[in-house]
Amino acid sequence: ASSPDEEWPEAEKAEKLARGAALKWASGVFYRPEKLEGLGHYRRRETQRNNSIQSRLKSTVQSYLEGVSAGLEQLRSAAQEVQGVCQDLGAARWALLDSADHFQGLQQMRKLMEEHVQLASVVQVLPQIFSVHEVFSHILQLLHGQRLLEAHVELMMVEQLRDDILSQLHLRGLSGAQATVLSYFSGLQDLNESLAKQLWEIVGSSLRLVREDPVLFVTAVRIIEREEKIDDALLLEATFLPPGRPKGWRQKFYQVLQDTITGGRFHAPRLDAEGPGLAKHLAALQKDIVSELLVVKDLMVQCVPAHYNILSVCTATFHQALSSHLQEILREDLDKQGLFLLLEWALRVYHSPEMMAHPDLLPEVDVSALDPLMPSELVDQTERRYVMKVKASVFEWMQRTLEVEFKEWFREEEPETDHEGFFQSALPAIVMQMLNENIQVASLITDSLQQKIYNMALEELEAFLGRLREALVQCGKEHQQDRAVPKYYISHLLAVLNNNLALSNSVSSLHPDTACREVPGSLQAALDRMQKKATQLLLEELLLDLQPLCLQLPSRKWLSGSQLVGSMCEVIDKYAKDFSRVRKPVFTLLLAESELLVANQYLRALLQRKMVCKSREERGQLCHRLLQDASQLRELFCGLGLDRGQQSLEAVFALRELICLKDPALLSLEVLGFITKYPDVSDEHISTLLDIRGDVSKEVRHVVLEMMAQHPQALPEGYRPIFSTILVPVPELPFCLRKGKCA
C-alpha cells in the first residue's frame, strides 16, 4: 500500500505552504517582547479554532459516507431486478418463436376482413352507382329550370361518390379501374360546365339582378362559396385530388365581374375624340360609374360575404379600366379642347363630389389608396401636348391680329383714341385677353399646367413683338418710298408706342403668382426693341423735316440773323404736339431723343461745314448767333417739359465758350474742361473748332492736341454720346507741282 503523501501530493504541498505562512505570521507577531504576554491567549484561541474545524470535517465526512453507503445498496438492488427482467425477456422470446405459425394465420384473416369491408361498402353504394345516369338527367332538368341550389346539391353528391371510389382505387394502386370510373362519370364534366355557364351569366348580369331579382345572384354566390370550401378542404388533405379540382370558382367570379364592368363601356368603337363627342362620352362614363358603384354599395354588398370586399374590388376595377381607357383615348390625335377635357376630367372631375367623392359613396369608396388615374409622367406629357396645341392656336390668332393691325396702319383715317385722347388700337387688349384666358383656363387643371401655359404665353408674346417690329420696319420702308403712304404714319407710330407701353404694363398681370410680378429679361428686351424701333422711325421723320433747314447753316445769311432756328422750332413744336398723344413716360423719352437729335444735327452742321472766322468781329458775331440759337432751342424744350439737366444743347454753349475765348493761349485749359465734360469728343472735333476760330497758331494747336493725348477720357456709365456720331471731314492735302513749293 502506498503512503497518503504519495496518493495526495497536493495535500503535502498545501501543508507545507500552511506551515510556512503560519511561521511567517508568528515571527511577525511575536517579534517584540511585549507581544509574548498574549501568547497563552493566542494558543487557547487557536486550539478552539482547530477543534471546531475538526468537528465540522468529521461531520461532513460522516454524511458523505452515509450517502455512499445508501447508493451502493440501491445499485445492488437494481442489478438484481435487471437480472430478473432479462430472464423474463428470454422466456417471452422463446414463447413468440413457438407461436409464429399462428400469427401468419391471423394475417390472412385480417386481409379477408378488409376485403369483406370493401365489398360491403361497394354493395351499399351499388344502388347509387346504378342510378348515376338517372341523377344526371334530373340535374340537367333542374339546371334548365334554374333550380340551381337543388341541382348543385345533387351534383355534389355524385361528385362525392365518384371521388370516394377514385380515392379507394388510388390507395390500392388500380389505375386501370380509375379510367373506367372516370368514363362512367364522364357526364359530370358537362353538368359542371352547364352549371358554371349559368353562374357566369348570372354574375355577368349581377348589377341588374341585384336591383331586379337578387335571389338568383345570391344563389350563385352560395354555390360558389360551397365549391370554394370543398376546394380548400381537399387542398388541406393533400392526399388525393379528384379530377377538375380545384375549380377556383371564386376567382372566376371576380374575373367575370371585372370583365362585365370593363367590357361594354371601356372597349367602345373609335369615338369622336374632338369636342362634343368626347365630352358626351366622358359624361356618360361619369354617370354610369357613379350609378353602378351606388348599386354595388347599397345592394350588392348585402348579397355577398364580407370577405369578398366587393365594393373595393369594383372600385379598383373601375379605376384601372378607366385608367387604361384614358390612355387609349390619348393615343388619338386630340385637339386642344379634347386634351383639356381629358385633363380636367381625370384630375378634377374624377375626384370631385360629382363622381368618386360623391356624398352617397363616401366614406366607403376611397380611391386615394389606389394608383393615380393618370401617372404623373402621362399627365406631364398630356400637358405638354395641350400646351403645343394652345401655342399653335395662339400663334394663329396673333398672326391674324397682326395682319389686321398692319392693314389699319394704311387706312385713310387716324387710329382710335382712349378717353384721355391718347392714340391706341385694340391690339394690346386682344393679345392680353387671349393670353390671360388661356392661363386662367389652365389654372382649372393644375398649377404645373398653368405655369407651362404662362411660360408659353411669354414666349409667344416675345415672338409676336419680333414679328410686329418686322411689320413696323416694312411699313417704314414703304413710307420712305412715298411719304404720303400711310397717310397717318406718325399717328400710327404713336399708337404703336402706346400699345407697347400697355403691353409692358399688362405683362406682369399674367403671372399666376400675384406676389411675383417681375417681367422676364428677354421679354423686356423685346418690348424695349419695339419701343426703340418706333422711336427711331419717328425721329427719322423729324430728321427729314429738319435736314433742309440744317443744310442752311452755317452760312453768312444765317450769321447775319436769319429766322432759320425759328423755322426749326416750328417743326419741333409741331412734332411735340403729335408726341403729346402718347403717355408721359414715352412722351418724355421722345422729347429727350428729339432734343438730342436737334443738338446733334446742329453740331454736325457746324463741324462738317466749316466756316472760318476771318476777324475778331466775325468770331464775336458767330458767338452771338450760337448763343441766340442755343437759348431759343433750350427755351423751346424747357417749355415742352424737358428739364435743362436732361438737355444736350449745353454742348452748344460749351462749344461757344471755346470760340469766344479771347486769349488762344488759354485754349488748352478750356479744352481740358470741355473734353472732361464731353469725353466722346475727338482730336478731329477739337481741331475743327480751332479752325473755326481762325486765330490759332500751329504751336497752340500742337499744345492743345498734346494735352488731349496726355489726358485720355473714358466714357462714364450712363453718358449719352453727342460727338461720337459726328464724323468730321478729312482735311484735304495741299496739291504740289513737281519741283515746286507747297502753298
Automatic annotation (TrEMBL):
MF terms (GO), sorted A to Z: SNARE binding
Keyword Protein biosynthesis: no
Subcellular localization(s) per the UniProt record: Cytoplasmic vesicle, Secretory vesicle
A biological-process GO annotation: exocyst localization
InterPro entries: EXOC3/Sec6 (IPR010326), EXOC3/Sec6_C (IPR042532)
Cellular component aspect of the GO annotation: exocyst; transport vesicle
Coiled-coil annotated spans: none
Main localization of the protein described in the UniProt heading: cytoplasm
Alphabetically ordered keywords of this record: Cytoplasmic vesicle, Exocytosis
Pfam families: Sec6 (PF06046)
Function of the molecule: As part of the exocyst, may play a role in regulated exocytosis of insulin granules.
Annotated family: Belongs to the SEC6 family.
Assembly behavior: Interacts with EXOC2, EXOC4 and EXOC5; may be part of the exocyst.
Protein name (Swiss-Prot/TrEMBL): Exocyst complex component 3-like protein
Record gene name: Exoc3l1
